[in-house]
Amino acid sequence: MKILLVEDDDDIRRALSLSLKADGHVFDVAEDGERGYLLASTNDYDLIILDYNLPRLSGREITQKIRQENINTPVLILTVRSEINDKVDLLNIGADDYLTKPFATSELLARIKAITRRPKIWQGHILKFRDIELDPDKFLVLKNHKRINLSTKEFALLEYLLRNRGQIMSRQKIIEHVWDENADPFSNTIEVHIRSLRRKLDDDRHKLIFTFSNRGYKIDEKK
């Protein structure tokens, strides 16, 4: 899962970044509303976390702008505002949820799971393909009902390809979604992780991940 975190408070931003990383999430970070809006409007995220009181553009303004542009990425707003009218306003402009400061990071992580479990056209809960099952909530991959141990990046890469089954996913898209905006697009890290997944999940009868030269990778029944 890839998340955008927009928070101007240094201490809160660092604490949330550590919690998101420990929970296995890939994320980009912005320190002000303008940068946050730019990232939100030009990248593909599974969730956007916005502080309400941001410099340059508020979390409320960012939410309004991306909804006007038909960007339907779930939005979670962090706010010190506790009045019912303020909360209703956030939901009415398109936020999916809000969390009142101060809050425990465990509650934030629980909200993230709850929001991203909500049905989307392309997203199911447990992803299945042939004899492989992937459960995002439990960080669990089964092959023929036997657990397969994957690293965090291997898991995220497999989940991304499964969610986009039948589509060729370019190196750039994979880097943006599974790694982050600072990753080196010219390194061989994708190839290394693809080889590792093949070693763990391929069998004599079936190939799981197909390579398309100069185009990308795809999970499908056949090339």
UniProtKB/TrEMBL annotation:
<keyword id="KW-0804">Transcription</keyword>
<dbReference type="InterPro" id="IPR001789">
    <property type="entry name" value="Sig_transdc_resp-reg_receiver"/>
</dbReference>
<dbReference type="Pfam" id="PF00072">
    <property type="entry name" value="Response_reg"/>
</dbReference>
<feature type="domain" description="Response regulatory">
    <location>
        <begin position="2"/>
        <end position="116"/>
    </location>
</feature>
<dbReference type="GO" id="GO:0000976">
    <property type="term" value="F:transcription cis-regulatory region binding"/>
</dbReference>
<dbReference type="InterPro" id="IPR039420">
    <property type="entry name" value="WalR-like"/>
</dbReference>
<dbReference type="InterPro" id="IPR036388">
    <property type="entry name" value="WH-like_DNA-bd_sf"/>
</dbReference>
<dbReference type="InterPro" id="IPR001867">
    <property type="entry name" value="OmpR/PhoB-type_DNA-bd"/>
</dbReference>
<dbReference type="GO" id="GO:0005829">
    <property type="term" value="C:cytosol"/>
</dbReference>
<dbReference type="InterPro" id="IPR011006">
    <property type="entry name" value="CheY-like_superfamily"/>
</dbReference>
<keyword id="KW-0805">Transcription regulation</keyword>
<protein>
    <submittedName>
        <fullName>DNA-binding response regulator</fullName>
    </submittedName>
</protein>
<dbReference type="GO" id="GO:0032993">
    <property type="term" value="C:protein-DNA complex"/>
</dbReference>
<feature type="domain" description="OmpR/PhoB-type">
    <location>
        <begin position="124"/>
        <end position="221"/>
    </location>
</feature>
<keyword id="KW-0902">Two-component regulatory system</keyword>
<dbReference type="GO" id="GO:0000156">
    <property type="term" value="F:phosphorelay response regulator activity"/>
</dbReference>
<feature type="DNA-binding region" description="OmpR/PhoB-type">
    <location>
        <begin position="124"/>
        <end position="221"/>
    </location>
</feature>
<keyword id="KW-0238">DNA-binding</keyword>
<dbReference type="Pfam" id="PF00486">
    <property type="entry name" value="Trans_reg_C"/>
</dbReference>
<feature type="modified residue" description="4-aspartylphosphate">
    <location>
        <position position="51"/>
    </location>
</feature>
<dbReference type="GO" id="GO:0006355">
    <property type="term" value="P:regulation of DNA-templated transcription"/>
</dbReference>
<keyword id="KW-0597">Phosphoprotein</keyword>
